[in-house]
Amino acid sequence: MTQTTCLLIGCPVDSGKRRPGCLMGPDAYRTAGLAEELATLGHAVEDLGNLSPDPHQPDTGDGRLFKPNLTAAWTESLTRAAIEAMPRGLPIFLGGDHALSLGTVAGAAAHAASVGRPLFVLWLDAHSDIHTPDTTETGHLHGTPIAYVTGRPGFEAFPPVPHPVAEENVCYIGLRSVDPAERKLLEQSRIHRYDMRQIDEHGIARPLAGFLDKVAAAGGMLHVSLDVDFLDPSVAPAVGTTVPGGATFREAHLVMEMISDSGLLTSLDLVELNPFLDERGRTAQVMVDLAASALGRRVFDRPTTTHY
To answer: Is the pTM of this model over 0.90?
Structure first.
């Protein structure tokens, strides 16, 4: 990957679910040396600090959804941050729970539209996150970003999405926990999706290569949203939504190295890290290593890492 300006944007979003802790994620990535790793690869790195949500009405807690007003305010702030950052370089959004992607993807799509290019989204996650506020049983809005950014109804209390991402421009890799309502939505959609059985049967490289070829052929911009639970919990335990059977360390690095080889990456989310659940910073370091692989580090350049 060519040298670029990496913009680190802290997103201490912790309103997308009831279990707290993801607000500590941005500083965990900083402590794990993300900026230093990217600088070692020759990139210019600017840490823009942590964002705050826009002003909003307090959440009363008496509705079915958990903290909808705060999450909508974060969406407004993050959409604006993405629009402002993308002309300057490659923003890396340091989460924070996955509700942050309501804003980061919406902002990336708006920027892509402004320069006349389509946005593609690679969703590396155990979950499909395509609930709407009407279908979610938990009321947790970290399970709704894909529905929101593809323009599905039910988000009237959120900022409008003037440039929805086309469903055929979205690709899931690593699915292994999909609710019945989400399954129904997916079966009616044009979204590309590869669960862990398909990866076990055919490998992880083939579906990813096919999707990256589509992005390149369309002259698209690529937003990658990397959830900690894409990885197997044995590799990355610091997440509140662990699902056994996830990607191995080697599979995850292959994905990131292929993304780097493609030269298509234009924005990146690192989400759902809960340092309170980590083991001596192990998960934060794994995620930093993966981000470095996405930005050009190769297997021969990987240092030996200790976790004590």
So the answer is: yes
